[in-house]
Amino acid sequence: MKISWITSDPTPAVVYYGTSPGDNTFSANGTTNVYNYLTYRSGQLHDVIIGPLNPNTVYYYRCGLNSSPELTFKTPPSQFPIKFSIVGDLGQTEWTISTLQHIAKSNYDVFLLPGDLSYADSDQPAWDTFGQLVQSLASQRPWMVTQGNHEIEKIPLLHPKKFTSYNARWVMPYEESGSSSNLYYSFEVTGVHVIMLGSYSVFEPGSDQYQWLQADLEKVDRKRTPWVFVLIHAPWYNSNEAHQQEYESIGMKKAMEDLLYRARVDAIFAGHVHAYERFARVYKDQANECGPVHITIGDGGNREGLASRFIDPQPAISAFREASFGHGQLLVVNATHAVWTWHRNDDDVAVASDEIWLKSLVSVSACS
């Protein structure tokens, strides 16, 4: 597990941890960095990798100093079932707070965020307030994220470098997965192989991301990880009027859809469009029992509001769509079956507004 935190003043990059309150049996050291953005200079960014850790275990930990507050987190289980909470385009609004309150009640193991985190949009202190907003959840469970368009933060001439803040603050395990970029990586947990792609990193055939994806898919062992899920930011399938015909969507789909189809990816989750939509299993714009289920879950609560206008008539491959804030839960029950549910913020978290059972494609004889 990587523990990341920020301090105003220089502090040792060390984490003390154990399996009971006040237990400092173990410790690990890491690195400290800062970054500059125009006239802004960040606080001290600390990253410490701790472990090896036991599965399905609550750990107690302190960051930097023994006098710092004691926090807890729980590691994912080593065997099924495992529950993912998934939502994109969070932002920092009252809607965001409602979404986070629902997620906190969902008893999830791992949080997946398909891009557009803070909506800082070059206002760097907003990255700090976003961290404070999500800390109560992000300190307790693994948060795995990929980038969206609001993370680019490039200003021609003044700050020509992309993703400065995102890459400094949200360091994902890209090197561990053989990637050369923090913008795309993969990881495995409890029988699931998760691929996080970069919609705003070069993705055409021959690019570093394309070649990395090819190599990563070839290494997947479906006996060890019978499930494969992919996260992107810009959806490849979308019947909302918002964000139609953007190159990050249609260009990436053209470049990579064949790779994911041949690899029998089970589901692809996207953000960007501020609404919820679930498609049937699909490939090349047609229903296909061996294609992935595409789900747009960009309804976390950003300041831009909902994308409330859908294209009529509803395409045959679009199974469910609604412009409401909410979040998704993916419960992987075993090696062959999982259940996906979508929950509106307006409803109690126990209420599922959309639900579908999924069967892993490697367990479907016609697809394997």
UniProtKB/TrEMBL annotation:
It is an enzyme of class 3 (hydrolase). InterPro entries: Calcineurin-like_PHP, Metallo-depent_PP-like, MPP_PAP, PAPs-like, PAPs_C, PAPs_N, Purple_acid_Pase-like_N. Residues 1-75 form the Purple acid phosphatase N-terminal domain. Its cofactor is Zn(2+); Fe cation. This is Purple acid phosphatase. Residues 83-276 form the Calcineurin-like phosphoesterase domain. It catalyses: a phosphate monoester + H2O = an alcohol + phosphate. The lineage of its organism: Eukaryota, Viridiplantae, Streptophyta, Embryophyta, Tracheophyta. GO terms for molecular function: acid phosphatase activity; metal ion binding. Residues 291-349 form the Purple acid phosphatase C-terminal domain. Belongs to the metallophosphoesterase superfamily. Purple acid phosphatase family. It comes from Handroanthus impetiginosus. Its EC number is 3.1.3.2. Keywords: Glycoprotein, Hydrolase, Signal, Zinc. Gene3D superfamilies: 3.60.21.10, Purple acid phosphatase-like, N-terminal. It holds the Pfam family Metallophos.
